[in-house]
Structure prediction request, 89 residues.
Amino acid sequence: MTTDFIIGLARGAVEVTLMLSLPVLGLGMAVGLIISIFQSVTQIQEMTLTFVPKIVAVLVGMLFFGPWMLAKMLAYTEGILTNFPQYIR
Prediction:
């Protein structure tokens, strides 16, 4: 195992992590921005108004993107486990 191999494996893990978290975090950020604009316009400064819609949006995003996320995680894990004998040489 060379350092290039380990860096490549870590890079792949970071890429998969970013790819999986992007849709859910993007939805949370978009809903948070919309709620912030709404609060600025109406001058309502209720703290629970920001948390509840973001939690609901993230939950809906996980339900919608969940099968895709699971397929990506399984493909990455399967690739690592399939090539494991080659890694330990």
About this structure: The first helix runs from residue 3 to 42. Residues 3-87 form one domain. The chain has three helices and no strands.
